[in-house]
């Protein structure tokens, strides 16, 4: 209505506009959310339809201001029928292309979801193909991320690392097995420890001490060959926590939550739930 009034005033009453709401019922139901209601209109005015006429320029500028699209009016019934046939043919072709693409898309999805034999942690399991691809990409990314820590030369790559002295025999066995399997030589060279840089801190912990170790690490990591405060924290932290929260009901709720988390972790109920918050709740 605003457009019709503005056009009527700009043409000083020498214009008439007829509106017809567009019929959207022919579109599929899945497109109903994205469709916008539109109206078709025809404007009759005096002054000629030549692009050089002042009336034509007024109508075009007003349509552009209201965001309306302008189309040329057919000069005869035969021309209108020809346009309708062309548009109908174009819509039919696009509909056919859309259906073909949907069929292709669904066929590709079915292939990606088809279970295949995949190696998972040394065991053969049937997983969807897309999951096998994802695991392959994760492994390749991890391999190349590790190789970035190496120093490469013409035919060799070298990396300096720290490892526990008691694991030296295991490392040599693993390197020998991988060398025989991949037909590439890998060996371990020991360098005498130096005062600079200082060796990193490493503690062998049982699983129940890992949450306390993470708690201690938030305050600071012990230096090399220093005592591990996590051993004392596993005794005193629950005691002090119980002193601060002496309410029986509150403690009972915490026990229930801890038991539920332990049950969920023991039964692998959160394999699809990943994130820092889930890891903190389950791992401490």
Automatic annotation (TrEMBL):
Protein name (Swiss-Prot/TrEMBL): V-type proton ATPase subunit a
One Pfam family of this chain: V_ATPase_I
Highest taxon above the source species: Eukaryota
Record's keyword terms, sorted: Hydrogen ion transport, Ion transport, Membrane, Transmembrane, Transmembrane helix, Transport
A GO molecular function held by the record: proton-transporting ATPase activity, rotational mechanism
Coiled-coil region: none
InterPro entries for this protein: V-ATPase_116kDa_su (IPR002490)
Family the entry assigns: Belongs to the V-ATPase 116 kDa subunit family.
Principal localisation: membrane
Organism expressing this protein natively: Toxoplasma gondii TgCatPRC2
Residue spans crossing the bilayer: 235-264
PANTHER family attached to this UniProt entry: V-TYPE PROTON ATPASE SUBUNIT A, VACUOLAR PROTON ATPASES
Location in or out of the cell: Membrane
GO biological process, one term: vacuolar acidification
Known role: Essential component of the vacuolar proton pump (V-ATPase), a multimeric enzyme that catalyzes the translocation of protons across the membranes. Required for assembly and activity of the V-ATPase.
């Amino acid at each position: 209505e605003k457009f019709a009034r503005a056009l009527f005033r700009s043409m000083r009453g020498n214009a008439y506009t007829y509106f017809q709401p567009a019929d959207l019922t022919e579109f599929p139901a899945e497109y109903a959310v994205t469709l916008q209601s539109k109206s078709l209109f025809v404007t009759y005015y005096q002054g000629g339809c030549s692009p050089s006429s002042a009336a034509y320029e007024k109508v075009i500028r007003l349509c552009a201001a209201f965001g309306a699209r302008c189309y040329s009016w057919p000069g005869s019934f035969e021309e209108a029928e020809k346009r309708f046939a062309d548009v109908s043919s174009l819509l039919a072709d696009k509909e056919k292309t859309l259906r073909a693409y949907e069929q292709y898309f669904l066929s590709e999805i079915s292939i990606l979801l088809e279970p295949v034999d995949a190696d998972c942690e040394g065991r053969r399991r049937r997983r969807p193909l897309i999951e096998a691809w994802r695991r392959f990409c994760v492994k390749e990314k991890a391999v190349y991320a590790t190789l970035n820590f190496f120093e490469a030369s013409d035919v060799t790559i070298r990396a300096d690392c720290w490892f526990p002295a008691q694991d030296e025999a295991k490392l040599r066995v693993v390197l020998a097995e991988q060398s025989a399997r991949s037909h590439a030589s890998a060996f371990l060279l020991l360098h005498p420890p130096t005062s600079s840089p200082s060796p990193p801190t490493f503690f062998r912990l049982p699983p129940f001490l890992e949450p306390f170790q993470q708690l201690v690490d938030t305050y600071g990591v012990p230096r090399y060959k220093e005592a591990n405060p996590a051993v004392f924290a596993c005794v005193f932290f629950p005691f002090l926590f119980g002193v601060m929260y002496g309410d029986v009901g509150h403690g009972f709720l915490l026990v229930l939550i801890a038991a539920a988390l332990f049950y969920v972790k023991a039964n692998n109920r959160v394999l699809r739930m990943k994130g820092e918050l889930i890891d903190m709740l389950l791992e401490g």
